[in-house]
Amino acid sequence: MSSDTPSAGPLSGLKVLEMGQLIAGPFAAKTLADFGAEVIKIEPPGSGDPLRQWRLLHNGTSVWWQVQSRNKKSLTLDLKQPEAREIVKKLAAECDVLIENFKPGVMEAWGLSYETLAEANPKLIMLRISGYGQTGPYKDRPGFGVVAEAMGGLRYLTGEPGRVPVRVGVSIGDTLASLHGVIGILMALHHRQASGKGQVVDVALYEAVFNCMESLLPEYSAFGAVREAAGSALPGIAPSNAYPCTDGWVLVAGNGDSIFTRLMRTIGRPDWADDPSLVGNAARVKRVDEIDAAIGAWTQTRSVTEVLTALNAAQVPAGRLYTARDIAEDPHYRARGMVETVTSADGLTLDVPGIVPKLSATPGRITRRAPTLGEDTSAVLREIGITPEQEARLRERGVL
């Protein structure tokens, strides 16, 4: 955890109510919290956010939780009970942003629609993340990130040609939706400065994926071309691929006239470096198989370190495939503050990802460990005028 002199983050003073769970909503809230926003996370009593139990656990709690919920407060509420929903209304009346990633219609069924909440707080901004968005014929379908990655066009392209598509090793659809949600919140905050009015930010998981699919649709529109899976290659860009070494693989991006020239000289093909018929990406794409074969023939007789040493000296973009161990031990990660250390509530010392992006004047900081379940319930309730006696009665009825 950073020990530098505290500085007000760029979102200091922003109050956020997080009603989401698992990945998409909470990742957006975490990003805001990293930059100074006060985030109050609502969790169901007893079990809490299911992410607390996902993947590898330490003393019954996921170590992923220590990343996803840092800088947040935890408030337990059983939202199936009317008293709990009244507490949400009181909190929303004092918040700038509300984040939810329930199936469309859930908030309305609870009497917590945007229109209802905005009556008490017209400045409220609500981020709504769902599989298919708040409108359209698919809006009521259940949607997870993996399905969105397929519908957004990404899953069709991941894998080797002719083989089953594979998933990206992380929940990339959820994370892309989160980041689009954060962008939407920041734009809505900017608009609110001028208008005094909040609004809904509607993010669909599949649309966030689709927004990153580059030329996929216009190529089909113009040429009827359906882009296919291409393994580790980048179709239409040459050379850019993964190449075998004696002890692993190396990624080389030689797509650029001057870069290609330096790459060819490095691998012992000065004839191609000076070949006018290979100038320009379009020309190289026509001979990509031949070029890839030549690069692979050079790399496969050398170690990853030897290849990277030569290509770095020649200013050719290249890199190894990093594992978790490589990341943890890499000096550049450390120098950039991308590996930070935190201590969990049960005393576990953990390396966790640092904060992105890097702001020069108001950088983000990890100021608070991830909360235990309901750790901040009493403190949050006091802030909205609920007395200890009232809290005790709510606990007796299972509201908290």
From TrEMBL:
<dbReference type="InterPro" id="IPR023606">
    <property type="entry name" value="CoA-Trfase_III_dom_1_sf"/>
</dbReference>
<protein>
    <submittedName>
        <fullName>CoA transferase</fullName>
        <ecNumber>2.8.3.-</ecNumber>
    </submittedName>
</protein>
<dbReference type="InterPro" id="IPR044855">
    <property type="entry name" value="CoA-Trfase_III_dom3_sf"/>
</dbReference>
<dbReference type="Pfam" id="PF02515">
    <property type="entry name" value="CoA_transf_3"/>
</dbReference>
<dbReference type="GO" id="GO:0016740">
    <property type="term" value="F:transferase activity"/>
</dbReference>
<dbReference type="InterPro" id="IPR050483">
    <property type="entry name" value="CoA-transferase_III_domain"/>
</dbReference>
<keyword id="KW-0808">Transferase</keyword>
<dbReference type="InterPro" id="IPR003673">
    <property type="entry name" value="CoA-Trfase_fam_III"/>
</dbReference>
